[in-house]
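Intended use. Records like the one below are meant for learning the mapping from a protein sequence to its folded structure. Do not use them to infer anything beyond what is encoded.
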Amino acid sequence: MAKKAKHMKLATFLIQNGYLTVEQAQEVMQKQEAAGDKRKERFGRIAVKKGFISEKKLNQAVLEKEREEFGY
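Structure written out for the chain above:
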């Protein structure tokens, strides 16, 4: 039987693994909310644009998150 994936929001993962602070994540989420319903920008994109995390570190974190969630 396949292992069921445990889904976690990217923001939570980044905070728990030391990539972002809570304050940085809140700032990114505020920017997302300010955009309203019009083409909401992805959390990671905003964090990179704000200089909170590099593109390379974001990609690394996403891979770590997927490995953790899907067991590969």
